[in-house]
Amino acid sequence: MKKIGKQTIKFDNPPTISECSSIVGPKEAQGPLAKYFDKTLEDEFWGAKSWEKAESKIIKEATNMVISKSGISSQDIDCVFAGDLLNQCISSSFGLRETNIPFFGVFGACSTFVESLSLGSIATEAFANHVLCATSSHFCSAEKQFRFPLELGNQRPPSSQWTVTGSGAVILSKSGNGPYITHITPGKIVDMGIKDANNMGAAMSPAFADTLITHFNDTGRNPSYYDAIISGDLGHIGKDIAIDIAKSKGYNIKSNYNDCGVLIFDKNSQDTHSGGSGCACCATVFSGYFFKQLREKKIKKILLIATGALMNSTSSQQGESIPGIAHAISIEL
Amino acid sequence: MKKIGKQTIKFDNPPTISECSSIVGPKEAQGPLAKYFDKTLEDEFWGAKSWEKAESKIIKEATNMVISKSGISSQDIDCVFAGDLLNQCISSSFGLRETNIPFFGVFGACSTFVESLSLGSIATEAFANHVLCATSSHFCSAEKQFRFPLELGNQRPPSSQWTVTGSGAVILSKSGNGPYITHITPGKIVDMGIKDANNMGAAMSPAFADTLITHFNDTGRNPSYYDAIISGDLGHIGKDIAIDIAKSKGYNIKSNYNDCGVLIFDKNSQDTHSGGSGCACCATVFSGYFFKQLREKKIKKILLIATGALMNSTSSQQGESIPGIAHAISIEL
After folding, report:
1. Most exposed: A166, B75, B218, B286, by fewest CB within 10 Å?
2. Residues of B in contact with A320 (CB under 8 A)
3. Which chain A residues are Cβ-neighbours of B7 within 8 angstroms?
4. pLDDT tens for residues A148-186?
5. pTM value?
6. pLDDT for B198-255, tens place per residue?
7. Which of chain A's residues have a Cβ under 8 Å away from the Cβ of B187?
8. What DSSP element (H or E) covers A31?
9. Which of A102, A311, A318 sits opposite B88 (nearest CB)?
10. Which of B96, B107, B315 is nearest residue A105 as measured by Cβ atoms?
11. What pLDDT, in 10s, does the model give residues B186-210?
12. Contact check, Cβ <8 Å, A88/B106
């Protein structure tokens, strides 16, 4: 691999995405992408005694599923990159503690899925035969931790997003027939001073635009090169802002750009306000929907840019703004 | 680089540790290693309005310091790996948001320093000229978040450890005169069922032993190969357990093994019970003390194994055990 331009890495032997798995919760199971997910849950607990334990179970079963589907023995997986939104990333560490695979914990808030694929791709070209990447989030554990106890029944403002319950897991392999991860463009932290923790789309869209445009500059590509440019969880408001920022910088992405948080819920019937969010939003929509579109050759080139808001409830209470980040990977047949 | 044995990576062109910096708090400034740290603070706030903001300032200044000491322009640093103990790693994201360098957030609890050096080493051999690695922790923000408000004045049990206030930052470079990171052995999650959140040393020492012995098996080395085998923050109790586990597996490490949490505070006069802990424990003791020992050729081969407890306060309240992890790097002149 080699660095090209300011911050993009181009792979000489692009890693193959060998297999993906996706598990989602009951609300996602009522959304427009329901039929693409491997498993849909009937309730938020899945037999566990707490939302946190349920989230651990979801990422555990998603990783078991992707290993099983791939036919690759877990002993042949060289390392795992995983993370989630819970404090100290306990969903991943508890969910994956029985895997017996060297474990790298990563945290990029809702950008974690693409961060794990980026580092997993580097590891695959550099030394590994197979790498496992996984992330999760859970509406109830996230609301409890970041906002209010669900039992309070607080109203949610129109700009708020709905954390996706679910997990997506991926196995990357050194050899295979694609789809291939050909480039990664890791993002810088971008903080434009947005302080509204109920408007994550606005806080993260400048980071999305920064990574998007850097990717185009570094690779010499333009928006029309890709069949689809997909952001992680900007939601309806953030998506509109992202289109506007890109346009102001000379890039028209309106025709082939969409957002996983926009796609996963039905705007009219599901009452999620600005759409989906969370580590699992991008992870399940990619693993469930886009990966199958690639495999069936319905699309051939995707630029996947997951966005994250690098704050916590303490930082918001202390009056801090919300630093955003966005990591991009280019996936091609 | 190539994988050797079960889980070790050997570098063909080992990255150089070009420079280190360390900043510590007032209690560490009264400890036996005080004179080795680059900067010691007079109070826990350093002019900031909260402990969290102080911790962000500490990691920010530690990274500014290592960049300044190295003479390398921040524009020439290809990426940063950073993480910390605060929820959603806000110390790192707020502290480093102005660096303008592609940012990979990592979380391995107190193993984060060596996790960041491991991934930084892979990045350096694979594509980067220079990589920045940094971690922090803060006694007051950690107590507030993981245990009790300091204002309560709770008694601490004898097995508890004292979170180090400080930050260590490192620049790795593709070329240089060493010390070199020659091998990394990333650890698996090991959970032996320990549930006492006031005895982290006991919870983490099995993970330390697992990675230690795997490293020896993978490399064909034995304890006497190294001038020093150093764990991150097992403390006095965990250190004794680690020696016992290693002995039971046929490895006598007693003569050249020590722990950063044991070294940073004076057992008799500083009342920290089982010693130091936190991401900054290993980071400051390595960056402040051992790096200088290597530069002055007083020691030539170190095996540095940082340990982490992958739990949070919710998991403990829900009756969960404490999964441990340990990542090892071999540093040689």
Report:
1. B75
2. 94
3. 78-79, 102
4. 999 999 999 999 999 999 999 999 999 999 999 999 999
5. 0.98
6. 999 999 999 999 999 999 999 999 999 999 999 999 999 999 999 999 999 999 999 9
7. 102-103
8. none
9. A311
10. B107
11. 999 999 999 999 999 999 999 999 9
12. no
Partner residue facing B101 (CB), from A188, A315, A320: A188
A with B: how many residue pairs have Cβ under 8 Å apart? 167
* Within this chain, domains B2-173 and B180-332 share the same CATH topology: yes
Split at pLDDT 50, 70, 90, the class of B34 is: very high
- Eight-state DSSP code of residue A325: E
Q: Tokens 């309730």 correspond to what residue?
A: A43
Domains of chain A, residue spans: 2-173, 180-332
Q: Which of B3, B9, B79 sits opposite A186 (nearest CB)?
A: B79
Distance CA B75, CA A134 (A): 31
CB B1, CB A127: distance < 8 Å: yes
Neighboring chain A residues of B305 at a CB cutoff of 8 Å: none
Two tokens, residue A285 = 């929509």
For residues A116 and A63, the answer to whether their CB atoms sit within 8 Å is no
CA distance B317 to B313: 6
Handedness of CA B258, B264, B266, B270 (dihedral sign): negative
Q: How far apart are CA B302 and CA B304, in angstroms?
A: 6
DSSP-based three-state secondary structure for B22:
strand
Mutate to test the interface with A, among B3, B85, B107 (most CBs of A within 10 A): B107
- B105, B164, B106: which is closest to B288 by C-alpha? B164
Q: B2-173: what CATH class?
A: alpha beta
Measure CB to CB from residue B119 to each of A119, A189, A191 and give the nearest one: A119
The two three-digit tokens of residue A4, written as one number: 């090209």
ipTM value for the complex: 0.98
Q: Give the pLDDT of residue A182.
A: 98
Strand residues in chain A grouped as ranges (E): 2-4, 8-10, 16-24, 39-40, 79-84, 103-105, 130-137, 162-163, 166-173, 180-185, 228-231, 257-259, 276-277, 301-309, 324-332
Q: Do B294 and B32 touch, CB atoms closer than 8 A?
A: no
Query: In Å, what is the CA distance from B101 to each residue of A330, B59, B80, B284?
Result: 20, 15, 7, 23
Residue of A127, A131, A210 for testing the chain B interface, max B β-carbons within 10 Å: A127
A98 three-class SS: coil
- For residue A94, what pLDDT is reported? 98
List of chain B residues whose C-beta atoms are within 8 Å of the C-beta of residue A123: 122
CATH of B180-332, one of 3.40.47.40, 1.20.140.10, 3.20.20.70, 3.40.190.10: 3.40.47.40
Q: Which amino acid is at B303?
A: L
Measured CA to CA, the distance from residue A64 to residue A44 in angstroms comes to 19
Residue entry with tokens 């019970």 = B273
Question: Would the CB atoms of A106 and B109 count as touching at under 8 Å?
Answer: no
Which letter, b or e, does each residue of A24-37 get, where b requires 16 or more Cβ atoms within 10 Å of its Cβ? Answer: bbebbbebebeebb
- CB contact (8 A) between residue A89 and residue B107: yes
